[in-house]
Amino acid sequence: MRINVGGKLWLAFFCTLTLTVLTMYLLLHNSLKRGFLDYTSVQAIQRLDVMQGALLNIYRSEGSFSELVQDPKRWLDVKSIIFSDSHRSVSPPNESQQQVQLTQNYYREFVTSISLFDADKNLLMGIIKPEKTISWIPLVDNNAVVAFIGFVKPEVVERESDRRFMAQQLTFFGIISLVVLFISIGVATILTRRISRPIIALSKHTEALASGDYQQRIKINSHDEIAQLGDNFNKLAQTLEANEQSRANWIADISHEMRTPVAVLKAQIEAMQDGIRPLDKNGLSLLAQKVEGLNTLVDDLFELTLSDIGALSYHKQRLSIDELIQSCVEQFQTQAQESNLSLVTQLPKTLPINLHGDGKRLEQLLTNLIENAIRYTDSGGRIEVELITRFEQVIILVRDSAPSVDISQREKIFERLHRLENSRNRATGGAGLGLAICKNIVAAHQGTICAEDSPLGGICIRVTLPQKAQ
């Protein structure tokens, strides 16, 4: 039998409340019985004051209890002082003859348990009941204990009126316990439904989320752990929805990126097949250019995928970062001149500057950054590549002149397939994968990369790398 969370909570409440009420009833039953016995015992023990005075008078007049010990009848007469009117002093006037007889039996049993002991608690008169706890009343004369009165407290309720009173009280306690139990069960039922309702709702929303409905959200009405769980569910659903949207955009963007060169290739090949375009060197050069574009896109996608899953290989070693920067800048000097751009480096006076890294991947990082700067900088502008060392860190700054990038777009430029201009022309905008690859390369070197304002009027890409291995 499968019990849901609500049923388990209710069962836990029910068992706990039942055990609590039962324990309370048993404790009250025991407390009432013990308390009532103590109360009736006090009534009986109060009669011992008379006997205590009589015994002290005998001791003072005779100097000891020797004669009393030798005369058992006299001892019975002393005890009869207690029994003579005890039943009349404590019995209600409307008691029946049977009830009076029970009361007399009760006090007779008490009186027969009274014994006289000397100062060392040695028995003088009376009997000792085995396995009974004896209570002691000292007989004091001139600040000295001369003897003890020993007695056994009653352990059962003998009188009918007392038993009837106890039965009434226990019945009353039983009724109260049942009322408390029923009220508690009602409250437990309400609390169980209140606690289980959001859990049931969370289960239904989770099931819908697992089936692919990422728009599921839970309404938060409290501030407890269940509410925190609901808030985490909402964040999870929001993240999954964003990832699904990103995946759809990714597929759409990749399809668009590949469709354009494929369409050009198809059109050119069909034109050559139909004889509209001659099969010459220029036509083959255009086809080769589009194939190369597709190959570059596939290579970028492959590298980005490898870096995402951590499978991109890195062979780190000690290398001179200033020499690597100088080499990369020299490779792009011709391209910068063709774009009417000035490309310069700013290196520290203290050379060389070494760090622990993968030379091939860092070259790929610098190549992407410089190529991006050349592609997006207006003609007649300036590009600066600066190297700074600070606190065992290497800082690489790639600055360019106008145009700049809006502040709201600066974090997004490191996202895959994100480009600031809407055109899909790879000659100007590229596929938007370069900076995403750069971000992964920097992260693999335990560094950081960010975009900030450039003093030249454009944008500055700041790369911070540790010099030592981590």
Describe the structure.
With 470 residues, this protein is α+β, with helices and mostly antiparallel strands. The chain has helices spanning 5-46, 48-62, 66-70, 72-83, 86-90, 97-112, 160-210, 225-273, 281-308, 321-331, 333-338, 359-376, 434-444; strands at residues 115-118, 123-125, 134-141, 144-152, 317-320, 342-346, 354-357, 382-390, 393-401, 448-453, 457-466. The chain has three domains: 5-162, no CATH class; 225-308, Signal transduction histidine kinase, dimerisation/phosphotransfer (DHp) domain (Helix Hairpins); 317-466, Histidine kinase-like ATPase, C-terminal domain (Heat Shock Protein 90, 2-Layer Sandwich), CATH 3.30.565.10. The protein contains 13 helices and eleven strands. The two termini are 56 Å apart.
What's the topology here?
Layout: H1 5-46, H2 48-62, H3 66-70, H4 72-83, H5 86-90, H6 97-112, E1 115-118, E2 123-125, E3 134-141, E4 144-152, H7 160-210, H8 225-273, H9 281-308, E5 317-320, H10 321-331, H11 333-338, E6 342-346, E7 354-357, H12 359-376, E8 382-390, E9 393-401, H13 434-444, E10 448-453, E11 457-466
Parallel strand pairs: 6-8
Antiparallel strand pairs: 1-2, 1-4, 3-4, 5-7, 8-9, 9-11, 10-11
Helix pairs in contact: 1-7, 2-4, 4-6, 7-8, 8-9, 9-13, 10-12, 12-13
Which characteristics define this entry?
single chain, 470 residues, Helix Hairpins, 3 domains, four-stranded antiparallel sheet, 11 strands, nucleotide-binding, cell membrane
* Major sheet characteristics: 5 strands, mixed
Strand order of the largest sheet: 6-8-9-11-10
Strand proportion, as a percent range, falls in 15-25%
State the shape.
Answer: elongated
Tell me the series of helices and strands, N- to C-terminal: HHHHHHEEEEHHHEHHEEHEEHEE
The overall pLDDT average reads 79
For this entry, what is the oligomeric state of its chains?
single chain
How many discrete structural domains?
3
Low-confidence stretches: 86-92, 422-429
Structural class: alpha+beta
Radius of gyration: 51 Å
Number of helices: 13
Helix content: 55-70%
Number of strands: 11
Distance between the termini: 56 Å
Membrane topology: Multi-pass membrane protein
Organism: Paraglaciecola algarum
Domain Histidine kinase: 253-469
InterPro entries: HAMP_dom, HATPase_C_sf, HATPase_dom, His_kinase_dom, HisK_dim/P_dom, HisK_dim/P_sf, HssS/ArlS-like, Sig_transdc_His_kin-like_C
